[in-house]
Write the structure tokens for this entry.
Amino acid sequence: MASAAIEPTIDESAIDKVEQTIENTFVQKVVRWVFSAAGITICLTILIAIVASIHKGPYILVNTIITGGMWALMAIGLSLLFSVMNIAGFAHGEYFMAGSLTAYFVMQPIGKYTLDHPESFITYVGPLIAILAGTFMCAILGVITERLVFKQLRIRNREGWLLNCFLITIGLSVIMQNGHQLIFGADFKGILAYWDFPSVPILGVYISMDRVCAFFIAALTMVGFYMFMMFSTAGKTIRAVSQDEEGARMVGISVDAVHIMTFALSCGLAGLAGASLLFMFPSYPTVGVMPLYNSWFIIILVGFGNVAGSIPGGFMIALFQVLTRSYFGEGWEAVIPVLLISLILIFKPSGIFATKVRTVWDQ
Amino acid sequence: MASEHEYYVQKKGIAKFLDYLCLTPLGAIGFLILIIVPLFPPFNQDYLLRWFILAAIMGAGSMAFDFSAGYIAVVNFGFAAFVGLGAYTSAITAVRWGIPLPVAMLCGALASALLGLFTGAISLRMRGMFAICLTWFIGIALMGLAIKMVWLTRGMLGLQVPYFFPSDVSNLYYWYPVLGLSLMTWFILKRIARSHMGLAFKAIGQNMDAAKTSGINPTRYRIINFTVSCALAGWVGAFYAHFIGILTPDFLHTAKTVEFLVIAYIGGRGTLWGGFAVAFPFIWFTEMLRSNFDYLPGINLLIYGLILIVIMIFYAGGMAQFFQYLVDKYKDNPTVRWLTT
């Protein structure tokens, strides 16, 4: 009797698991990834980018990489906001606008100074100061919004949070757009170039210094953001709150501080994108609508609340937009994406990089 | 005001008839005032009547908007595009095929309903956020199409639309049809909201998981609700087209959606009548702002945004909540009770 009880039962699933872990060599991982939805899309994107660049000229690749990085920054901020605080940020484009506006006003005296002193070091550092000013301005604006609006809502009413926040961000967006129009006017406020140097030849194409710098700024920010989220204490607390707010509060994380930090980060990233793209998108009241549209497109494409997926998503969307514009002409870039979105929603509503950890979110 | 007792109180005489129309005696009185007010000065001037009519159109539109936003908690963020699709369809069918305008209006409603059905079938399986995004994208796409398809819509130049009545008649000719249209919209929406289906809508809006547990198929009911809302949007838009006489793609802009949304939410979500009641003072107020502060462009939109945020944070029920508060305060008074049930 006793021996029968002790007799070890063979757990088939455990053996399968062991076999699976043994099979997980690097090559097999890569092969499996390539044939997953994410792998297929990324490989297809790269392939299409290369084919289109050969067909239409390398400017497609260059434009994709430069704007894609910035859209990815926007989408990272938006995605962070969504996964940590469950706020659908429809005012995010307005932080883009605020960033570009600040950069414009900071750049005015710097531009004057560098005209008089072309040899001074300000020529190199000045634009960076403008971009940083835009970033910090937006971070501060974000904190103010959080304190003045979302904190108040959180204190008073947590029912139907997602919908209420969505409506509030619409209100914010309307206020900021029309505030810009009232105070600064509706005309285009742009600059010709940040770094007024000769263009750099890459792959036989001449690329302006600004674009090269914009790409490096985006790349550095993404790496910095990844490091921050993965290794710093602050980043870890943000991730903890995004997974379980109550749990985070129980282990002594100040959720309030995390909310402020998230808002500052996400709005700062939008401001950074706006400030760095000032040479492409001059600041005017509704400049943020297109970036906002793109970032929501990215979020639907990669799945809600997937922060890391926003980076490849940004490049995909940028490529998609550049392709629509060069093959269908100006004006169709608002129409074609709807077809793609419909296809995604029909066949893969959780996005192509569906996350395993789902944050709690109601309707 | 639709209170919970409404279904159980036995009604007699005129109250019974009004109840069939889904009107409380107070609502009926308000409606009668709206019927006679434009006959007396100072409201019988043409430009005042014009904002009366525009306000009624906005009010009817915000009722249709509130039907999906208030009942099933799905915000149609491309609502103006659905209204505009109805308007364009009605105008184009009337011009191209020469069909009578009421039939053309039905065509407009049908077009919006079909687009609503398509949108709903794709996005309403998932959480409400997907519907918001998809309707927003569709709104922007429709506006892009209206700009690009110059051969059909004449793009930014604006499409000439046949009027209901000869252009030299008083606006009073439009006032009674628009009142009828609003009453019709109210009647349809309220009848649905009172039926078993309306109960299912409310259940889904309050707690979808609980509704699922009770055996309600949320997707099906949400699609029905959304389609009805879009159809009425198209129908209101078609009327707007034949009243205003010229259609531009700007009418499909998200800013217009925000206008409907603000009116519906100030009025009170989930009440239907709130938006219609608020539309009149609201449109008047913003027209005042626009005409008196023309050196401050966009001031009216700025105030929309502020009001929306303040309402969302401090008084989520809007004007209807305040009204309910007053009714509850005086509920022992038999006249008040008769008027409001």
Chain A touches chain B at residues 88, 149, 152-153, 156-157, 160, 162-164, 166-168, 170-175, 177-179, 181-182, 186, 285, 293, 296-297, 300, 304, 331-332, 334-335, 337-338, 341-342, 345-346, 349, 361-363 (CB under 8 Å). Residues 357-363 of chain A have pLDDT under 50 and may be disordered. The domain at 55-347 of chain A is CATH 1.10.3470 (ABC transporter involved in vitamin B12 uptake, BtuC).
